[in-house]
Amino acid sequence: MSAHPRPLIGWPLLPLPDAHGALAWPDLATSVRDGIRAILSTRPGEQLMRPEFGGGLDRLLHAPNTIATRREMRDLVQDALTRWESRILLDSVEVWEVAGAPSQVRVEIAYRLARTGQSAAMNVTVDLEG
Question: Is this prediction's pTM over 0.70?
Answer without folding.
Answer: yes
